[in-house]
Specification:
The protein is an alpha/beta fold. Helices cover about 30% and strands about 25% of the residues. It contains five helices and six strands, in the order βαβαβαβββαα. A six-stranded mixed beta sheet has the order 2-1-3-4-5-6. β4 and β5 form a beta hairpin. α4 crosses α5. The protein is globular and about 55 Å long. Bound molecules: inosinic acid. The site of inosinic acid has 18 residues, from β3.
Length: about 200
């Protein structure tokens, strides 16, 4: 069985990717399997750049095919913030949510989108980058306990439940990450398997 490394130690993301890879003949490893993995600076200005930096570094260090994602929330009324700074916007998930709701206090336009870029690398070289999105609105208050990050305040278009109220399976049908990943897995099956990874 081939294996591929996902360049994250975020247990929530690994769990989402394990679900998405269910049924594929690929073993998923993560940076948690490489305890000495060095810190990689995410100094790109776009999701695609940051994903590329992380995937290239992981494929070199782990000597394996690797993919990495970079994702975040873009809020229309905030000119796309927090964007690539979504995880650095405040210190914890509850603080990030509180800060976002404060910035949007009294703001009528609550349109937002989650974006996810996934880069695939082999031997330190980025082969492809795929991008997915899901559009929605920011609620007035957090709702739901599942998921992570900004899930409790993100209401995807066409649903009356936030990402934190939807089940993992329901989120997977429409999420930015699933969307980018479905494009990436096709590439892995078609192209990367020819590289005998
Ligand atoms: P990174 O991709 O690890 O740099 O982190 C992106 C940040 O965006 C996360 O820490 C979350 O705050 C937010 N984010 C990305 N994807 C999601 C999601 O599916 N739900 C909620 N928040 C997310």
């Amino acid at each position: 069985m081939s294996h591929i490394v996902v360049a994250t130690a975020n247990a929530h993301k690994v769990e989402e990717y394990r679900r998405l890879l269910d049924g594929q003949d690929v073993e998923l490893m993560s940076l948690a399997d490489y305890p000495g993995y060095p810190e990689v600076e995410e100094n790109g200005t776009t999701f695609a750049e940051n994903a590329s930096i992380k995937a290239a570094a992981a494929s070199s260090y782990c000597e394996a095919a690797a993919f990495a994602d970079d994702s975040g929330l873009e809020v229309e009324a905030l000119d796309g913030r927090p964007g690539v700074y979504s995880s650095r916007y405040a210190a914890s998930d509850p603080e990030r949510i509180a800060k976002l709701l404060k910035e949007l206090d009294g703001v009528e336009n609550r349109r937002a989108r989650f974006v996810c870029a996934i880069a695939i690398a082999f031997n330190g070289e980025v082969l492809e980058v795929f991008e997915g999105e899901v559009k929605g609105t920011i609620t007035l208050e957090p709702r739901g306990k599942d998921g992570f990050g900004y899930d409790p305040v993100f209401l995807p278009d066409g649903y009356d439940k936030t990402f934190a109220e939807l089940s993992g399976a329901e989120k997977d049908k429409i999420s930015h990450r699933a969307n980018a990943f479905n494009q990436a897995i096709e590439f892995v099956e078609d192209t990367l398997s020819a590289l005998d990874f």
